[in-house]
Here is the input.
Amino acid sequence: MKISIKDIAYNGIIAALYVVLTLATYNFSYGPIQFRVAEILVLLCFFRKDYILGLTIGCFIANIFSSVHILDIVFGTTATLIACLLVSYSKILLVAILYPVVANGLLVGLMLFIIVDSTVSFWFYAGTVALGELVVMVAAYILFFILRRQDTFLKLIRANQNLAFKL
Here is the structure.
């Protein structure tokens, strides 16, 4: 696959957006109950597979600022990578929003279970993270459902797949 300077630039912008959105909403982006607004960007992979790179790098950088640094870098970034990969191969947007919910719920929930309080059930942490992610993904679904009808939006993100997607 040939990567152009334009592809690198777009992925850099997406990575920077992910970091800025995460840090701007720091109090909501980390912890057992989290609403990481930057995760909305994961749905960009539904329209263009190569944004997986920018989102993964953005998540990696954002997780450096987490209070649990290395664990969040490993677990959180892996969850975002898995979610992006699954979203990029999805053909139905409503199904695509479930991948980040499950990936983050399980992986970030496991991380929190390990570091916060193992007397609390793993499923509690998985559930709280998944619930926060679900709220963000429902908002993302509504946003992308509206924006996908705008040719200027599709041109801006350089969409090259799922242009006539199913709900």
In short: The chain has a mean pLDDT of 93. The longest helix spans residues 122-147. DSSP finds nine helices and no strands in the chain.
